[in-house]
Design goal:
The protein has helices at residues 23-34, 69-77, 103-125, 135-138, 146-156, 171-183, 203-210, 253-269, 273-296, and strands spanning 2-4, 10-18, 41-46, 50-55, 59-61, 82-91, 127-132, 160-163, 188-192, 218-221, 233-235, 237-241, 244-249. By secondary structure, it is of the alpha/beta class. The relative contact order is 0.10. The model has no long low-confidence stretch (mean pLDDT 87).
């Protein structure tokens, strides 16, 4: 389970005496026990009876922190010139202070924390927010039929669905609203509309601002610059920030329905964002082909 140090990164070892000790080895021992790269631990201050270390890695695994005081002190004792006494202690102001737990206590806290963390993760995973996009929807020119559709399907599957505000076609605004949803603990953020080839379509660009490595395959390609097509085609987008999955679906209601079915299937299988994007693009391409087929007949 990952812990964030939240900038409380100093670790103090009190009642320790050094006589010609190799400080690099001291830092190495702490890094080894905490299972982080050697260069992420620095000895930043040495006094007569205490030393201060700085941990330069923000994210640590709980099992290498909780209750590790004894192991660190035992390994430091083996370094020539490092004197450890019965009252030698390790402490820190932040989450690193958990190093000082005794080993049995550490196991119990770890189990409790893991359960709590998994409960929080499950809660987040079940929270969904849907943002319709586009000036036609915002000005009430067309009805938003997508959000009720998504809400009904997801609520039936036990998700808690909130309706986000209708967003203008503005990639900075869209990115800001998505970031806010991530910070507010939503596990799934869905946008509808704004994925087309016109210059006003900005949803995929908004997702790429939040997750530059988002998967953004084309559903259909056009010749750039023909008609109103400023871009090469229609794309969908699937990004991820931490635990939050972000999906940009097209606007047409029948395509949203297909998209939601693909997303539900993917979440059940625990697929990656790349696999979800691939499955979405395939399903929507099939839909478009059948639409065009009907159109020509």
């Amino acid at each position: 389970m990952e812990l964030n140090l939240l900038h409380k990164t100093e670790l103090w070892i009190n009642n320790i005496k050094l006589e010609g000790a190799n400080l690099t080895r001291v830092a190495e021992v702490v890094a080894e026990v905490m299972n982080i790269p050697r260069e992420k631990v620095l000895v930043v201050d040495v006094r007569e009876n205490h030393i201060t270390l700085d941990i330069l890695q923000q994210e640590l695994q709980a099992e290498y922190v909780f209750g590790k005081k004894k192991e660190i002190l035992n390994k430091l004792r083996d370094i020539p010139g490092v004197n450890i006494f019965d009252n030698t202690d390790i402490h820190s102001d932040g989450i690193l202070g958990m190093i000082g737990l005794d080993e049995d206590e550490a196991k119990e806290v770890l189990m409790r924390t893991k359960t709590m963390s998994s409960n929080i993760k499950n809660r987040i995973a079940r929270r969904v927010i849907v943002f319709p996009t586009g000036f036609e929807v915002k000005r009430g020119m067309i009805e938003d039929t997508n959000t009720p559709l998504i809400a009904n399907i997801l609520k039936d599957k036990g998700y808690q669905v909130n309706q986000g505000e209708i967003l203008d076609d503005d990639e900075i605004l869209i990115a800001g609203k998505i970031r806010q949803a991530v910070d507010n603990g939503y596990g799934l953020v869905i946008t509808t509309g704004g994925v087309g080839a016109e210059d006003k379509d900005k949803t995929v660009e908004g997702i790429l601002r939040v997750d530059p490595s988002a998967a953004v395959p084309y559903i259909v390609k056009f010749k750039k610059g023909t008609g109103r097509h400023e871009k090469e085609g229609v794309r969908i987008g699937v990004g991820q920030v931490g635990q939050t999955l972000i999906v940009a679906l097209p606007g047409p209601n029948d395509e949203v329905k297909i998209g939601i079915e693909v997303i539900m299937d993917a979440l059940d299988k625990g697929l990656s964002k790349e696999a979800i994007a691939y499955n979405l693009a395939e399903a929507l391409r099939d839909k478009l082909r059948s639409k065009m087929h009907h159109h020509h007949h």
